[in-house]
Specification:
heterodimer; A: alpha+beta; six-stranded mixed beta barrel; 14 helices; about 55% helix; B: alpha/beta; Rossmann fold; six-stranded mixed sheet; about 35% helix
Chain lengths: ~425, ~230
């Protein structure tokens, strides 16, 4: 079947029927091209929506304190609960779950911050480096607080873009000193936050520095955690709830709170609010897969159609070949060999063009709802293989029918 | 070479059955040049198609070079056609996108002959029909007479036992027709058996034997004195 003679015959036929080869090639290549671009846009759309709907990490769990409502182990009710560095360390040390990002927090809600003649009241937060990811803050200038800053208790500040505009106008704040609670802090970075102006009026400083400056000792106000992202919402919810329950038990036992007390600790599990996003992304995935499969189907139908036309167009040639001694199988083989070769080569071209377009143009697309369109290479290759296989199967029947035509009928065909 | 006994063939046309061949008995010896004549509808083309294994008879027997031609599957029919028969058609039936030499080489491709040998053989046959200089031309660059010469070269390429020609001069003017007939006569002179279906009396006179068909039976079968085509050119 794959003899050199056959290849010579196929190449001769292809090279002498350039228009037919070209048209077949173009339709297969464009089909694959459209599919690849569509899958890419679908991916980009998904990225865009995820970005749009998430101010903070979608799976953040934060724990803050209140006062007890039940007397327990000799303590009166209405006892004020206070977290310390030790409580934060305990959670990190003892939990069974793998933690993705974690930070403790000590904040002053209305801190007076001034630079030269400008001043304002901003929320000043002492934080750990991971807090950037919990808040999804993006650095636009300079850098974020790092672990060395925390260890050496640097008087460094990272300010929100809104605060920067208020205090510095158009000037670059990096390296300048701002006054926070009477002390000079060096500005090392500016961030934006998808939460908008409200979250961009914040000033972040290392938590160790904050505890000293505000005289908090080892006290912290709250802590936040995220868990690694899960495949689907149900699994994410399950993991998240298990983690929340575990740390609640752990902290209540350490801080001697009645397990039934519901006002001493406040655990906010953000994942419960993100169910809609998971659902939306799922719906979009289904939609784009639907569109993709429909496109693929259209491609397969197109290829089959071309095959049918090719066989029809070659009826007379088939008759001549049969009169000269071509066996039916050799006719089927010839048509399939030629068509599979043409679809494979042109499909590969379409694939390469599609991937190249996404690679080159993709990163420049910054629309609100489309970000970084890209496509999974193995999916693209398997659609190509599927298209070729389907084209071969679809081409087989017309080829077989063509081979069954009596030479006398084929020769009469004008 | 060809033995035909009591051959019947009918075609179904809706509810009616059209009886085309009504018991043909007919032998052809090796080296004969036979014309099958008859008006349209006489069954001459049907007879040729059955002889060419392009169609099957309903009844009767057909033996070609001692081989009974009966109940052939497509594969065997294809092999027999390649081995025993060379076809020449009124409309030439060359493959348009192939050059003259590639057209001639096609039967050899289906014999599984290697390319270099195929090309040598084909070139030799093109020389024989006087078209060696036109070997690389496509059919649409050739005149009608040239196309028919390529078709004859192709029919000869597989060295068949019998040449079957269906109205081979039907699409040609009379001068060209006679040139083609001259070529056929020369091929016959070398000993090859040739059967020609025609309705033109002058062409029939250039063979050695005329078989007259009317309404599906042979009404007349006689040897004639051959008129050499070259005398008329």
């Amino acid at each position: 079947m794959f003899s050199l003679e056959r290849w010579q015959e196929v190449f001769e036929t292809i090279s002498k029927n350039k228009l037919r080869t070209f048209l077949t090639g173009v339709s297969v290549a464009s089909g694959i091209f459209i599919l690849v671009v569509l899958l890419g846009v679908s991916e980009g759309f998904q990225n865009g929506v995820e970005k749009q709907f998430q101010n903070d990490a979608e799976n953040i769990i934060t724990i803050s304190t209140g006062s007890t409502s039940i007397a327990y182990k000799g303590f009166n009710k209405d006892r004020r609960i206070q977290f310390t560095n030790g409580d934060y360390a305990l959670v990190n040390r003892e939990t069974d779950q793998e933690i993705e990002f974690a930070s403790s927090l000590y904040q002053i809600f209305a801190g007076l911050v001034s630079y030269e003649n400008e001043s304002g009241s901003y929320r000043v937060e002492g934080i750990l480096p991971d807090y950037q990811f919990l808040e999804r803050a993006d650095i636009i200038e300079g850098r974020f607080i790092n672990i060395t800053d925390v260890k050496t208790k640097e008087k460094y500040a990272v300010i929100g873009n809104r605060a920067k505009k208020d205090l510095f106008k158009d000037k670059s704040p990096i390296g300048e000193y701002i006054d926070v609670a009477g002390l000079n802090f060096k500005v090392i970075g500016v961030f934006t936050d998808p939460g908008g102006d409200r979250e961009e009026t914040r000033v972040y400083i290392p938590i160790s520095t904050a505890q000293i400056v505000f005289g908090a000792g080892t006290d912290i106000r709250s802590m936040g955690f995220t868990l690694p992202k899960e495949e689907n919402y149900d699994l994410a919810l399950k993991q998240s709830n298990a983690f929340a329950a575990q740390i609640e038990r752990m902290l209540k036992s350490k801080l001697q709170i009645d397990p039934k007390d519901e006002s001493a600790l406040f655990i906010s599990n953000n994942i419960e609010n993100t169910k809609e996003i998971y659902l939306l992304i799922n719906a979009m995935k289904i939609f784009f897969w639907g569109v993709g499969i429909a496109t693929l189907l259209a491609g397969i139908i197109g290829v089959s159609n071309i095959m049918l036309i090719i066989v029809k167009e070659r009826t007379k040639e088939i008759g001549i070949r049969k009169a000269l001694g071509a066996e039916p199988l050799s006719i089927v083989g010839m048509i399939l060999h030629e068509s599979i070769f043409v679809t494979s080569v042109s499909g590969l071209f379409g694939l390469i063009f599609g991937l190249a377009l996404l690679e080159i143009v993709g990163p420049y697309i910054e629309l609100d709802f489309i970000r970084n369109p890209s496509v999974n290479f193995s999916i693209a290759v398997s659609t190509l293989v599927l298209l070729i296989a389907a084209g071969a199967i679809a081409g087989f029947f017309p080829a077989w029918r063509g081979a069954r035509i009596k030479p006398i009928d084929a020769l009469r065909d004008e | 070479m060809i033995e035909i006994k009591d051959l019947h063939k009918s075609y179904k046309m809706g509810k009616n059955s059209l009886h085309v061949l009504k018991g043909i008995n007919f032998n052809v010896e090796e080296g004969e040049l036979v014309a099958i004549m008859g008006s349209s509808g006489s069954g001459k083309s049907t007879l040729l198609n059955i002889l060419g294994m392009l169609d099957e008879a309903d009844q009767g027997s057909y033996t070609l070079d001692g081989v009974p031609i009966k109940n052939l599957n497509e594969k065997l029919a294809a092999q027999y056609r390649n081995k025993f028969l060379g076809f020449i058609f009124q409309s030439f039936n060359l493959i348009n996108y192939k050059s003259a030499i590639d057209n001639v080489a096609l039967p050899l491709f289906y014999q599984g002959m290697k390319r270099a040998e195929r090309m040598d053989r084909s070139m030799a046959y093109l020389e024989k029909v006087g078209l060696a200089d036109w070997a690389t031309h496509k059919p649409n660059e050739l005149s009608g007479g040239q196309k028919q010469r390529v078709a004859i070269a192709r029919a000869l390429a597989s060295n068949p036992k019998v040449l079957l020609a269906d109205e081979l001069t039907g699409a040609l003017d009379s001068k060209t027709s006679y040139e083609i007939m001259d070529l056929i006569q020369k091929i016959n002179d070398e000993g090859r058996t040739v059967l020609i279906v025609t309705h033109e009396k002058d062409i029939a006179q250039m063979t050695k034997r005329i078989v007259n068909l009317k309404d599906g039976v042979i009404i007349d079968d006689k040897k004639i004195t051959q008129v050499r085509a070259m005398q008329n050119v």
